[in-house]
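User: Please predict the structure of the protein below. I'd like the answer in structure-token form so I can feed it into my own downstream comparison script.

Assistant: Understood. Taking the following sequence of 304 residues as input:
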Amino acid sequence: MKPLKADLMILFITMCWGSSYLFMKMGLDSMGAFNLIALRFGLAFMLAGVIFFPRLRRVNLKTIRYAMLLGFILFIMFTALTFGLKSTTASNAGFLISLTVVFVPLIHTFLFKKKIEKKLMVSILLALTGIALLTIQLPFAFKIGDLFCIAAALCYALHINIVSTAAQKVDALSLGILQLGFTGLYAYLSSLLLETPVWPSSTDSWTAVLVLSVVCSGLGFIFQTIAQKYTTATRTGLVFSLEPVFAALFGFWFANEVMDANQYAGAALVLLSVVLSSVDVNFRKRSAMKNRPVALESYSAEFK
């Protein structure tokens, strides 16, 4: 798979996750947080497991270990996200969760001792500015739920970095499926201890659970694991920074939420940051090679 196709897969995932906030709110109206997470990931795992059962029969212990770790990180992330959304404003949550775009390269640098390209640093700053314009509503008041949102962003940045490494070492499809199962298992055990597990009790609840299971969890996290085998963690974080843009669009289409001028400017900056990170700006190299035949691949984005 070429890096461009991997980025398009991640872009599709980002669109799916942009709609997830609406469906999470619908699901939480009739069931507990751990209950919803368990159903969301448990159903996604069972569906994917049935479809790809022959592939899972060949899974090895290394893949299971990675899946257990990634599943635990996802469980902590969604737990923090759920409690954060309950105890802070939507604007605060949208901005703080999107700090993933900053945390991904920082964690990557810490874990692998690699420097961040200047082009990516500029892209990250543009994305952060755009997200702030898109999500923050003044006055910005810090709440206890903001700490949960920051924790969720850190967990997801860690998840992206570990997936980037694990996908090179084990079967990405099996890893993507198994992490769903472990996430659902951790959430189910927590629900048994702290809640009373129930099935969805209305059509809206079932709709929310099924969309979250099939689209946002099943397709989303399996596609992410496969795509990250062919692109970098930092690029993945940048494309995911488009999530608040899609969240705003879904809010406009389905909840009649109108964007103001600042939000439009913010969305444009986030989009610009992703485009900039994909453009080859190595002008010195091009100047040195301008009198030589150049292969078409030289003009593609660099993913190193």
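That's the full token string. The two ends are 15 Å apart (CA to CA).
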